[in-house]
Amino acid sequence: MRDRSEGGVPPPLPWEWLPDPQPPEGAEPWDTRLERIMAAADPGLRGLRTRSAAAGTSWSVFGLWWKPAAALAAAAIALPLLIGPPTVSEPRTEGLSLSLIAAEGDPVTLWGAFGIPADPVLARIAFQGQRNRAGQGVTPVKLERENR
Amino acid sequence: MATGENPRDGSEEPLQAEPDEDLARRVQRGERDAMEQLVRRYLRPIHAVAASYLSEPMDVEDAAQESFLRMLGAIEAYDPRRPFAPWLYQIARNIARKRLAARFRWREELPSGELPSRQPGPDEVLERSDVRARVDAAIARLPERQRTAFRLCDVERYPTGDVARIMGLSAGTVRSHVHHARRALRAALAEGGKEAKNRRIVP
Prior knowledge:
The complex is a heterodimer of chains A (148) and B (203). With 148 residues, chain A is an all-alpha fold. Helices cover 53% and strands 3% of the residues of chain A. In chain A, strands 1-2 form a two-stranded antiparallel sheet. The termini of chain A are far apart. Chain B starts with a strand and ends in a 12-residue tail after the last helix. Chain B folds into 2 domains: 17-111, RNA polymerase sigma factor, region 2, helix turn helix motif (Rna Polymerase Sigma Factor, Chain: A); 124-203, Winged helix-like DNA-binding domain superfamily/Winged helix DNA-binding domain (Arc Repressor Mutant, subunit A), CATH 1.10.10.10. Chain B has 8 helices and 2 strands. Chain A binds chain B through residues 1, 3, 9-13, 16-19, 21-22, 24-26, 30, 33-34, 36-38, 40-42, 44-52, and chain B through 6, 8-11, 27-32, 35-36, 39-40, 43-44, 47-48, 51, 61, 64-65, 68-69, 72-73, 75-76, 131-132, 135-136, 139, 151, 154-157, 179, 182-183, 185-186, 189-190, 202.
């Protein structure tokens, strides 16, 4: 049989030579087949609905808050690392209340601990005044800056 | 929903049909109407795919139904980012091949997907002309993809684009398969009579 193709493309075979096509869409056999398939599929679809609903009641609700909670936890951990440990500020020398615990302590050294170069005589006088007041039951003692 | 007439068969179809992948997502949640839409959309072409492998109408019917049930069973593993039609087509193709192998008790993979020949049974009646019988036999010996593409395009008259989408091929590849099939069939007819021994009888 001669191939009367044009441009190398073989033409379709005559319709009457080919197998019968299926009924067109919308014809009755398809509705019957569809019903049969859906009836067989119903149990599987029920299972999918059950599993989908179970996943929706637990994990999806969990998902509503776990993200912000995780973000807050991460911030709580990261913030101190970024800011660093708190530093103790230098104690102010004015108005500093100090309880004298070392009767034998050198007053000059004591003032020096606060960065105040103390006059040995005046420091001793202030120290002695503190001791007298401590003996009268007045504590804590407020060191005054005598050295000017 | 607005509808339009299908130029192929006059049926009414929604002009803005929901994409297959969206329907598949809904089937993953067990939505029955989504499943029904997919079955309605692909029942006829999947039947045609099964018919390109199987000759018995009941085998074709069972294979098509099993394809959709197997699809449903695997729907949770389906990735909606991938096209749905080729996935369904592969399921249908595998089922049809297995049924074909089981029916003829072939233990090995069919080389090139060729359908086996068989002798007509006593209850089978040859109703077609000799030409049709020879065409049937020649179709049965086509390579798998050529046979399916030829069946969907030339027999069932699906547009090339639809066939390409279902088979997961390019339109050019589908046209190539169809053209090769036509040439092979015409050559087989030109030989005349040589396919009598491998005649595939269709009631």
